[in-house]
Amino acid sequence: MRVLLTGAAGFIGSHLAERLLARGHEVVGLDAFDPFYDPALKERNVARMLGRPGFTLARGDILDSALVARLARPSAPVDVCCHLAALAGVRPSVADPLRYHRVNVDGTLVLLEACRAAGVPRFVFASSSSVYGVRSHAPFREDDACDRPASPYGATKRAGEHFVHAYHHVYGLDATCLRFFTVYGPRQRPEMAIAKFARLIEAGAPVPLFGDLTSARDYTWIDDIVEGAARAVERPAGGFAVYNLGDARTTTLAELVRLLERALGKRAVVEPRAPQIGDVPLTCADIAAARRDLGYEPRVAIEEGIERYVRWVREAAA
Ligand code: NAD
Which of 54, 106, 229, 251 has the most C-beta neighbours closer than 10 Å? Predict the structure, then answer.
């Protein structure tokens, strides 16, 4: 299978590219090496794939419709477009909503248009638990109403899902939206909580904890997410499908810090702060649909995942 994979140099994208190559697929990667975080980390992510048979990388912007059209061209048919490129993160989207909209919504439309024009039959879209907004009951199900996003980022991901559905409805595009729940593991984006907390605790620096320590997240180990995403890439939706990909368990902020302290063998210097706009108090995935249709099964619980992550951080620093 030939897969056009956007965001291939990013955290999840680089892991997914490796998994798809290992399963014998051809990967055409596209990434702009956006400076949202250090592009040198993204260079490192792709370095392990460059030169490998079956992998090609285009450096460019998903908003460049001529480039995207060239990559999706009918003369070298793409079987499925897996669209991960985006500006991620809730808090920065509050600071720059227009840029988030341009990349995450217009960018998704550029890809959908290119796929339509080139006859790419299938599309897999990286959505997010952020589409669920603020809610207090768990777990979150795919058919819950998602009409009240709590951040510009969540709104862009929901809009992306809507456009993907519209292209399914109008043009018969076979489409799957994957709602990822906080992903962690090697190469995690450096501004995300686990990467940031681990760095600060290791350095003995204060760890700012925003809001209530009982706020809880569903943290998903990277290999579990990648397995779910690879299965969605390989399996036609047979129409339009939405799946939560999470661990289906929650961890409070206080527990997360305790697990990191234990794995690092150091106490955190905690600095309580006011809640941040855009943050939600709870995420928790109902994964019954992904289990049923994709055979998705998360295997690494947070206690084990944090230990593995800390081992990776220390090996990478050595
Ligand atoms: P990431 O920032 O590491 O990866 C995104 C990649 O997209 C980056 O390499 C970046 O350079 C690229 N990119 C950004 N703008 C681009 C543009 N205009 N043109 C081309 N490439 C561009 O983030 P990630 O954590 O790997 O997230 C991947 C996807 O999963 C995103 O769509 C994100 O919204 C979604 N997601 C991630 C999480 C998570 O916990 N990491 C949770 C929910 C959803």
Answer: 229
